[in-house]
Amino acid sequence: YPSEFLMQKITEDNQVPVHLRVSVSLQYVAGLKGRALVEFFHSNIAEVENEELRHLMWSSVLFYKTPNVEVMACVLLSTKAIYFLLDDSFIHADERQSDFWNKENSDCENSSFHLSCCFVLKLNDLQSVNVGLFDQYFRITGHSADHIVTCLTRDSYNTHTFIQQLMAVLSLLARTPSPEPVDKDFYSEFGSKNTGKMENYELIHSSRVKFIYPNEEEIGDLAFLVAEKMDGLTNLPSLNILLYVLAFQVNHVEGSAQNTSSLQPKTLILTSSDLFLFDEDYISYPLPEFAKEPPKRDKYQLADGRRIRDLDRVLMGYQTYPQALTFVFDDVQNQDLMQNLTLDHFGE
C-alpha cells in the first residue's frame, strides 16, 4: 500500500478549482504529489496507523451550524473517516463559531506557520447521505447537528465518484448485525415486481447507512415554486425545468485597486420561458431527525428572474471550465420600470 494506480489517481484529483481562492496552507497541500501526499496524510491527518487513504476531492462545504458560510475544503476519504481540511479563514468568518471550533492556536497567527483546521467525521458515526438534485451536491449526516456537512461539488461526476468510493469503504466496516432483519433488501427497497415503478429512492447500504436520492415530487415542487414566480402562467402542466445547475453570480467589486470580483453562490433554473436565480438552502433540507423546529428560511428564495424573450445576447468567455457566461437582457419593455420612471420624473 498504496498502489501506483491509487497514487496517480489521488495526484490527478489534487487540483484546486481555478475560480476559487484558498489559503496558503491549502495551497501547500494542493502542491503535493504521489507519495508525498500519502505521507502528508499519515503524518498530519490520519488518526490511526493502519488507515488507508482511498479518495481525495476538492469541494466547497457548508456546515449545519453555519449555513451561510461556504468554505473551500480538501475532502479526504479513508477506511476509517472522512476528513475535511478547511481553509483557515473559516475560523474568523463568524464569531459565533467559538464554541464549535477550538481556538487554541490563535496565538500563532503572526508566526510563519499557516494553520488549517481539520473536521473529522468517523465512518462509524455516519447515518445517512442525501444526494441533491442532478447530483450537484450531497449532504453527509452524522448523529448530531455538529456532524452535518454538505459538499457543494457543482459537478455530477465528482459527486458520483465520491459516493461510489464511500460505498466501497463502508462495505469494509464490520458492524454488528441487527437482532432481526428490519431493513428491506435492495430489490424490495427499489421497486415492486407488479408495477415495475420506482417506489422509494432510499437505498440502505449493508453498513446500515442510508443513501437518499431525490424523487419526482421534488422536481414537481420546484416546478410549482417556479410557476408561482412567473406572471400570467396559465398552463402549469406544460412547465418544464430544462436546466438546474449550481453556479456563481459574478459581482464586480467597485473601487478596488485590482479588477477583482466576488462570487455569490446561486442556483440557476432555466424553463422554456424564463431564467431564474435562486438562493438555495443546501444544508437544512430535508430536516434532520433531531431538528426541533423548521429552518429560519425557505429552501428556495428568488434572487432574480428574467424572461427569455427579453434576452438580448449571451457573451461567452474563452476560458475552458468553468465557463463564464454573461446574459444581457433588454428590459425596456419591463412594465414596472416604466411605472417607476413615470413616478420619479412626472409625479410626486
Automatic annotation (TrEMBL):
GO terms for cellular component: endosome membrane. Residues 114-178 form the PLEKHM2 PH domain. One of its GO terms (molecular function) is kinesin binding. Its main location: cytoplasm. Residues 241-347 form the Nischarin C-terminal PH domain. This is NISCH protein. It comes from Rhagologus leucostigma. Pfam families: PH_NISCH_C (PF25625), PH_PLEKHM2 (PF23142). Keywords: Cytoplasm. One of its GO terms (biological process) is lysosome localization. It comes from the Eukaryota. It is found in: Cytoplasm.
